């Protein structure tokens, strides 16, 4: 029988529920349990696909093409197992399902209400992954903070679920903050007490409290929290700020969070968790033997969460190369032909980021011209790849005014163009080319060498594509289409001949990089940047 763990948050947002959930899952997985994590978000968007990255950070795409919350990226990076559209549910999706059923007549004669119809639909979704039989334990992270109006139906669903599941089958972990008052020189437990009181008002007694803190919480504080919040002393778990999120599983191991959970769920402790590979990764991460500076050229650089998966991919690939990757954010809007040299000076590699819309487009093209002409390693992802095609068209093939029809619908040379089947799409949500598609790599290409194979699948999120009418010209001039979708002939990878590393990918490799499997293109890009750094 599947056991269920719910993770709620109190006091403030941004306590890192996603990282705690992923870390706990990692420990349980390392003991031999089959674990998955799902996130329930209280906002009304059907999915985060239509949200500006400034609002909600990066949109993470799953194998099956769901546009999801960036926490799913953490789940995959920690667990090295893919998630799916069932792993991220929003209020919008819940209501949409209920309203669709109402229109079908499923509730005829009944008043459709938050309780029981919305809460029933939430509980049904909480069970979906557990009922596949693929998991021993399902962790459900409830987005938002307890007490928010939006979260209420989810909290009520958790209460009902826990009650129905019975003791030992479901538990609630509540994440709270223990602030340090510098003036008083003290850690304060009152916000935690209040937060637990609020949960109690909703009928939920948390089983475990994970306390985020900047200072160690001593036994007295633990006792106080335990007494006032009705939890065992070993269920008060300290979660200190860590220098890297990848330390958190080991911190939770030290606090015995996994053992407390297993005991409460009446599950065997099985083996000691096997974290050898994880520790090996951490060892490399913390003891780099070299350093590279890589420029990340994009338009959302003010908010690093917008490029979460790219940043994490650099961490994985850096550790693999025993090299510290210093990522320098470069706002593409500020790049001009005049200042590109100055802004990009001293970089050992440049990644041009994915993105949408015209802002910063010309700056990205300038960055690419600079690195192409100066033999600096280049990696373009999605829009970054499309920009490399535009740049090459304009400056090498002499296609004056070449562009993507996304930015310039009337360009004389639409080297990047919308696919036919996208042209009549009017809805914005969930209508891009999304999810996993196959790609054949040319033997001997840089991409094939990186992957060590010629048939791959990678995830997508875009509407525009390389325009194959120009394919022959590009190939003849040296920008090789080294990755092609075998089913429809679309160009997936381009790379430049006679350049140390110039690779553009139409797909998003950053979505598949994990601690256990750093992405090969990132590994080789970092290696090329390192080689460049050593020579220059
Ligand atoms: N805007 C481009 C497209 O839709 C690229 C998208 C992206 O970088 N994810 O094709």
UniProtKB/TrEMBL annotation:
Binding residues annotated for ATP, in chain numbering: 14-19, 71, 242
Residues annotated to bind CTP: 13, 148-150, 188-193, 224
Protein name: CTP synthase
Domain Glutamine amidotransferase: 303-526
Modulation of this protein's activity: Allosterically activated by GTP, when glutamine is the substrate; GTP has no effect on the reaction when ammonia is the substrate. The allosteric effector GTP functions by stabilizing the protein conformation that binds the tetrahedral intermediate(s) formed during glutamine hydrolysis. Inhibited by the product CTP, via allosteric rather than competitive inhibition.
Sites where the protein binds UTP: 13, 188-193, 224
Pfam annotation, one family: CTP_synth_N
């Amino acid at each position: 029988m599947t056991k269920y763990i719910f993770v709620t948050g109190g006091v403030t947002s941004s306590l890192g529920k996603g990282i705690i959930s992923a870390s706990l899952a990692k420990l349980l997985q390392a003991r031999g349990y089959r674990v998955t994590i799902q996130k329930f978000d209280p906002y009304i968007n059907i999915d985060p696909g239509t949200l500006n990255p400034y609002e909600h950070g990066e949109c993470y795409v799953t194998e099956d093409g769901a546009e999801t919350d960036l926490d799913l990226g953490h789940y995959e990076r920690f667990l090295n197992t893919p998630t799916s559209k069932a792993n991220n549910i929003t209020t919008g999706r819940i209501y949409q399902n209920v309203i669709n059923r109402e229109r079908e007549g499923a509730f005829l004669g009944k008043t459709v209400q938050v309780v029981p119809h919305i809460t029933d639909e939430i509980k049904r979704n909480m069970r979906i992954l557990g009922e596949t039989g693929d998991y021993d334990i399902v962790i459900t992270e409830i987005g938002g903070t307890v007490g928010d109006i939006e979260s209420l139906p989810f909290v009520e669903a958790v209460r009902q679920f826990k009650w129905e599941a019975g003791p030992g089958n479901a538990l609630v972990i509540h994440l709270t903050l223990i602030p340090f008052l510098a003036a008083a020189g003290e850690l304060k437990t009152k916000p935690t007490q209040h937060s637990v009181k609020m949960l109690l008002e909703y009928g939920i007694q948390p089983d475990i409290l994970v306390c985020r803190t900047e200072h160690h919480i001593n036994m007295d504080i633990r006792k106080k929290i335990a007494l006032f919040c009705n939890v065992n002393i070993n269920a008060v778990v300290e979660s200190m700020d860590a220098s890297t999120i990848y330390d958190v599983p080991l911190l939770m191991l030290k606090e015995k969070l996994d053992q407390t959970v297993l005991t409460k769920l009446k599950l065997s402790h099985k083996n000691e968790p096997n974290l050898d590979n994880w520790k090996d990764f951490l060892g490399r991460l913390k003891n780099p033997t070299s350093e590279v500076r890589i420029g990340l050229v994009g338009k959302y650089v003010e908010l690093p969460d917008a490029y979460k998966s790219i940043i994490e991919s650099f961490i994985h690939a850096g550790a693999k190369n025993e090299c510290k990757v210093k990522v320098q954010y470069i706002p593409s809007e500020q790049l001009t032909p005049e200042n590109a040299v100055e802004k990009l000076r001293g970089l050992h590699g440049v990644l041009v980021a994915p993105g949408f819309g015209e802002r910063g487009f010309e700056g990205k093209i300038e960055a690419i011209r600079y690195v192409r002409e100066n033999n600096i390693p280049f990696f373009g992802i999605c829009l970054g790849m499309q920009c490399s095609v535009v740049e090459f068209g304009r400056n090498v093939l002499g296609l004056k005014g070449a562009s993507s029809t996304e930015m310039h619908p009337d360009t004389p040379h639409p080297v990047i163009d919308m696919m036919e089947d996208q042209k009549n799409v009017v809805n914005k949500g969930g209508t891009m080319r999304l999810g996993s598609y196959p790609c054949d790599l040319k033997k001997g290409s840089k991409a094939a060498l990186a992957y060590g194979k010629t048939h791959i699948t990678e995830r997508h999120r875009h509407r525009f594509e390389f325009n194959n009418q120009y394919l022959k010209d590009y190939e003849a001039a040296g920008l090789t289409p080294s990755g092609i979708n075998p089913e429809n002939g679309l160009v997936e990878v381009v790379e430049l001949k006679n350049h140390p590393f110039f690779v553009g990918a139409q797909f998003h490799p950053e979505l598949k990089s994990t601690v256990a499997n750093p992405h090969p293109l990132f590994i080789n890009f970092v290696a090329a940047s390192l080689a460049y750094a050593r020579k220059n």
